[in-house]
Amino acid sequence: MADASPEARLRAELARTSAAQLGAADPLASAWVSANAGTGKTHVLTNRVLRLLLAGTAPERILCLTFTKAAAAEMSSRVFARLARWVTADEASLVDDLTRLADRPPEPAEVAKARDLFTIAIETPGGLKVQTIHAFCERLLQRFPLEAGVSPQFAILDEQTGRDLEREAVLSVLADATRAPQSQLGRALATAVAYAADATFDELLRAAMRRRDWLEAAPHLDDGGERHSGAEALYRQLLGVRARGSAADIEAERAAVLPDGDLARIATVLGDGGKTDVKHADLLRAARQAGTAAVR
């Protein structure tokens, strides 16, 4: 039997997709939708909300969460635009829309309810809740500040205020480190400066501050034994270095990656090159002199 034509395959795929979307929009189904941008996720969510409303769910009991304000606005706009269209649609158009929404002809009571949903949603105190995850969490903290361990008078920082406070804190820490260069903070600053030019120092600080997990774990790295032993163990684990290997061991193993004769020839060639090549030649010679790896 010959393969189906491209048009037939396309129709079959569209039918399969429509069936999957109908299933995901069913309020009785617990669904997880994963798809690329522009493939109909918002359409499915809009239909799910509309079917919840048609089934009698009160608007104030429906909560839709999104990542961005733009997505929340788009979702809300689609729901209310559909409800507004149902108010003024003629009977045939409304029945057709409801049939495609639920994949079955609507009951007369559902047709009548569809015309009332726009008014119900508009007049409901608090309305239909379509908001970002951040806005939902903020509202939750406002309702239960003591249970969450925050001040009842807390306020959300805007981006500019947050940047100003961050800069103020950075300048304060840098001033303390500069006034006491032999302190732990001063030595840490000297180490950071050694690895960053003037133009990249701020970038280095921002990158470090973005690693909140590391910053919060840093005070607890030492385990009470040898200084920085906790940090050493953590770095060995993350970098895949065995627990008892030394720097000399690693240097020796690096020297054994290529035969000694190949290393000698490469070092000779690089030695006749530019400044960077000469530097690499010196490193290769140092690797050759590391000796045999002492694996522990």
What does this structure look like?
- This protein is mostly helical.
- It is 65% helix and 3% strand.
- It has a two-stranded parallel ribbon.
- Helix 3 crosses helix 5 and helix 13 packs across helix 15.
- The protein is elongated and about 90 Å long.
Helicity level: 55-70%
Estimated radius of gyration: 32 Å
How are strands sequenced across the largest beta sheet? 1-2
> What sort of overall outline do the alpha carbons produce when their principal axes are compared?
elongated
The main β sheet shows up as: 2 strands, parallel
Q: Pick out the low-confidence regions.
A: 292-296
The DSSP helix count reads 15
- Secondary-structure-derived class: mainly alpha
CA-to-CA gap between the ends?
67 Å
Helices and strands, in N-to-C order?
Answer: HHEHHHEHHHHHHHHHH
Quick structural gist:
With 296 residues, the chain is an all-alpha fold.
Keywords:
296 residues, mainly alpha, two-stranded parallel sheet, 15 helices, 65% helix, disordered C terminus
